[in-house]
Amino acid sequence: MIKRKKAQLIAVILISAITFTHFQAANASTMNKAKDAKKKAEEDLNAANKQIEDIERQQAALQSEIDEKDAELVNVLVNIGILEDELEAKNIQLQEVTADLAKAEETEAEQYASMKKRIQFMYERGDTAMIEALLGAADMSDFLNRVEYVSDIYEYDRNLLTQYQITVQQVADLKSTVETEKAELEDMQEEYALQQTSLENILAQKRSQMGNYDNQLATAQATANKLKSTIDTQNRIIKDEERKQKEAEAAAKAAAREKANNSSQNNSGTKGGTGTGNSGGSTGSNSGGSTDGNSNDSGSTDDGGSTNDSGGSGGENPGYSTNVSGSSVVSFAKQFVGNPYVWGGTSLTNGADCSGFVMSVFANFGISLPHSSAALQSCGKAVSYANAQPGDLICYSGHVGIYMGGGQIVHAQSTAVGITISSATYRTIVAVRRVL
User: Fold this and answer.
1) CATH topology (fold) of 2-281
2) Which of 83, 352, 362, 390 is a Cys-bridge partner for 345, taking CB atoms 3.0 to 4.6 Å apart?
3) Which is the catalytic residue, given 371, 379, 395, 399?
4) Fold designation for 326-434
């Protein structure tokens, strides 16, 4: 009887062990699948996060380019506005000069006609009128006065005509200068218009490219969110399987203990009970430690430094030299007055444009400046025109010169006049920069 009960107990234990082993195998299969799915999702998530970082880095670089081009466009539009005002002023000045020239030419013609009449009268009367005038003198003093009067008339006519001719020439030269300056402003206006069109096209392309990046980023982020959800789901499955496994292990151990206790109560011998307890212990020895409790959600990403602060777009700052005086710079620059203006040139003797002239003058003192009138507007330190000192840069729309003091600049003005000295306020000043 005891042997039969013992056999039944062993059979129950074996059945429990087989059932637990089968459950454990099924549990391990589900958990392994969840772990594999989680690992695959984590790898894909890392790749998606890297793609997101790359897109954001490209977006930041592109946004920096867009901001730079926007600033350039704003500067061009400001310069266009300034040029329009200057052109309007030049047109008014040209109208005034043209009217002055016409009046001067008319006055010259009238004086010339009057002089011709006097000469004709003297010629037609011959020497008789002269002799009569002289013989009609009351005394020698009167005679000499009459001779001097006739001479004064000739001298007056000659001087007056010469004066009017000089005035006509001066007004004509002024008109020519104004026309040249107007033509230069129109050329700059056309150049700025081309720059505006180019910048607007570039900005349109870059904004379209930014839109593509936005779409790519949205897709990558959606993928990353799905992968995070997958990882969360697999983590829940793993934890649930771990819980089930622990519950099954606990149930198997409890069943074994209960059978062992029952067997001990029905049998007076302790040997079988001991064996049953040992069997139960061996059954429950299957380690549940194979589960991976570390549910590491790799959704955390580091976008470290994806936004690169390009800085320095405001213009090239020069190397400063504390031992250079503005008067030295002006004295050096003045010796090249009269040399030609050459577009894009940097030679102080063979020809330079406005920024090339400034760049080459300051290079003589070891100061590096950009060959661009627009970039020079951002160099050094901003000062007001009221506080301008010799050696400061006087910046205009599309032009630049070196301040001499006393309201004058030395600059490469145009192909018509070359390197020359002008009034600092001959055009609208947009900036004064101190680079010494």
Assistant:
1) Helix Hairpins (1.10.287)
2) 352
3) 399
4) endopeptidase fold (from Nostoc punctiforme) (3.90.1720)
